UniProtKB/TrEMBL annotation:
Record PANTHER family: NADH DEHYDROGENASE [UBIQUINONE] 1 BETA SUBCOMPLEX SUBUNIT 7 (PTHR20900:SF0), NADH:UBIQUINONE OXIDOREDUCTASE B18-LIKE SUBUNIT (PTHR20900)
Domain of life: Eukaryota
Protein family membership: Belongs to the complex I NDUFB7 subunit family.
Pfam families (UniProt xref): NDUF_B7
Annotated protein name in UniProt: NADH dehydrogenase [ubiquinone] 1 beta subcomplex subunit 7
Species this chain originates from: Coniophora puteana (strain RWD-64-598)
Length: 82
Protein backbone atom coordinates (compact mmCIF):
# COMPACT_ATOMS: atom_id res chain seq x y z
CA UNK A 1 0.00 0.00 0.00
CA UNK A 2 2.08 2.95 -1.20
CA UNK A 3 1.54 6.35 0.35
CA UNK A 4 2.73 9.86 -0.43
CA UNK A 5 6.00 9.24 1.41
CA UNK A 6 6.71 5.75 0.09
CA UNK A 7 8.44 5.31 -3.26
CA UNK A 8 7.96 2.29 -5.49
CA UNK A 9 10.63 -0.37 -5.71
CA UNK A 10 11.45 0.69 -9.27
CA UNK A 11 11.93 4.34 -8.22
CA UNK A 12 14.19 3.25 -5.38
CA UNK A 13 16.20 1.04 -7.70
CA UNK A 14 16.51 3.77 -10.35
CA UNK A 15 17.74 6.28 -7.76
CA UNK A 16 20.10 3.72 -6.17
CA UNK A 17 18.68 4.08 -2.66
CA UNK A 18 20.38 1.54 -0.36
CA UNK A 19 18.13 -1.17 1.03
CA UNK A 20 18.67 0.04 4.60
CA UNK A 21 17.07 3.40 3.74
CA UNK A 22 13.97 1.97 2.02
CA UNK A 23 11.29 2.73 4.58
CA UNK A 24 8.05 4.72 4.71
CA UNK A 25 9.99 7.98 4.17
CA UNK A 26 11.82 6.80 1.07
CA UNK A 27 9.96 9.10 -1.35
CA UNK A 28 11.28 12.10 0.59
CA UNK A 29 14.84 10.79 0.47
CA UNK A 30 15.02 10.74 -3.34
CA UNK A 31 14.65 14.53 -3.85
CA UNK A 32 16.92 15.15 -0.86
CA UNK A 33 19.71 13.04 -2.35
CA UNK A 34 19.18 14.66 -5.77
CA UNK A 35 19.51 18.12 -4.22
CA UNK A 36 22.58 17.06 -2.26
CA UNK A 37 24.30 15.78 -5.40
CA UNK A 38 23.46 18.93 -7.36
CA UNK A 39 24.82 21.20 -4.62
CA UNK A 40 27.87 19.01 -3.87
CA UNK A 41 26.63 18.26 -0.31
CA UNK A 42 26.90 21.86 0.89
CA UNK A 43 25.46 21.84 4.43
CA UNK A 44 23.48 25.08 4.04
CA UNK A 45 21.67 23.87 0.93
CA UNK A 46 18.63 21.56 0.71
CA UNK A 47 17.30 22.61 4.12
CA UNK A 48 13.63 22.21 3.19
CA UNK A 49 14.12 18.70 1.83
CA UNK A 50 16.30 17.67 4.78
CA UNK A 51 13.89 18.94 7.41
CA UNK A 52 10.93 17.30 5.69
CA UNK A 53 12.76 13.97 5.55
CA UNK A 54 13.98 14.21 9.16
CA UNK A 55 10.47 15.05 10.38
CA UNK A 56 9.12 11.96 8.63
CA UNK A 57 11.85 9.73 10.09
CA UNK A 58 11.24 11.13 13.58
CA UNK A 59 7.48 10.55 13.30
CA UNK A 60 8.18 6.98 12.16
CA UNK A 61 10.48 6.47 15.15
CA UNK A 62 7.81 7.80 17.53
CA UNK A 63 5.17 5.49 16.07
CA UNK A 64 7.43 2.46 16.54
CA UNK A 65 8.24 3.56 20.08
CA UNK A 66 4.57 4.08 20.96
CA UNK A 67 3.66 0.62 19.61
CA UNK A 68 6.46 -0.96 21.64
CA UNK A 69 5.35 0.89 24.80
CA UNK A 70 1.74 -0.20 24.33
CA UNK A 71 2.87 -3.84 24.04
CA UNK A 72 4.89 -3.50 27.25
CA UNK A 73 1.92 -1.92 29.07
CA UNK A 74 -0.37 -4.68 27.84
CA UNK A 75 2.05 -7.36 29.07
CA UNK A 76 2.31 -5.66 32.49
CA UNK A 77 -1.48 -5.48 32.72
CA UNK A 78 -1.79 -9.18 31.89
CA UNK A 79 0.86 -10.05 34.49
CA UNK A 80 -0.96 -7.96 37.11
CA UNK A 81 -4.20 -9.86 36.44
CA UNK A 82 -2.54 -13.20 37.13
Amino acid sequence: MPSATTASQQELKDNKVPIAWRDQCSALLIPLNTCRKQTMYLPWECNNERHTYEKCVYALFLMRRMKKMSKIRLQKAEEAEE
